[in-house]
Amino acid sequence: ELLKYACEIASENGSPYFIFDRDDISLAACCRLKTEITDQGMILHPEKLRFAGIQNVTINLPQCAYRAFPNNKISGSFLDTKNADSMELFLEKIDQAFHLAVKAHLQKKKFLRMMMENSDGPLWQIGKTAQDGRPYVNLDEGTYLIGLIGLNEAVQHITGKQLHENEDIFKLGLKIVSFMSLKCREYSKKFNLKLSLEESPAESAAGRLAKIDLQEFPDSKKVIKGNSIGDESYYTNSIHFAAAAPVDLITRIIKQSKFHPLIKSGAIIHAFVGES
What we know:
Elements: H1 2-13, E1 26-29, E2 33-36, H2 40-44, E3 53-60, H3 61-68, H4 84-117, H5 124-127, E4 143-149, H6 151-159, H7 167-191, E5 195-199, H8 203-216, H9 249-256
Parallel strand pairs: 3-4, 4-5
Antiparallel strand pairs: 1-2
GO molecular function, one term: ribonucleoside-triphosphate reductase (thioredoxin) activity
GO biological process, one term: DNA replication
């Protein structure tokens, strides 16, 4: 009866959350943000749970592609040895963006700590030690999110095809996100920072970054969606297929979900069913 009522409410305004119980202990909030709980003490005493996504820094994947290949495309399989140097250049641009993202996180962490540790600071109330012996927000335990945007346009610039148009291109997208997931793990250990890959809830960033790239990178006109000369230009959100791609919902769910194990802090699939 409760499930039926929740489905009725969801069909009207989408407010209920549906979280599948797959044995893992996890928390979910903010549309797609999630984390896994591995501390047995917190599992046994849920009143001690703390969950904070400190900041999200989003990597503009199409811009990485423009910088790597300003005047040419590559084609063929990602694993093709003749393309190894070209793809290495593209991944190098992503790695450079990662360095900037991590630098931004470290600077933000330092700034927040300064405001939380001083009794006259604006964030002291959430940084001071509470009655349970812990601060409400612990910057050392928080998650520092690395977002991604425009995977579809990045591979389109490189190969001339979008994610949904070719199986090899789709696999190329998976390898790019796999690289980013491994970088999160590598830099987490290097900087002692809990970095995690997330599908950025980036509708505003999708438009803003596209408009900036239109001014800086002329080749972007060939891949940016919407109106490339007006205010309606945008990149496809995160790892999604283009919204206008002629792909049925089930196929879209099956394909896009292949990326989800690589994106530890939350993923989402948009099902546009209102018009039907």
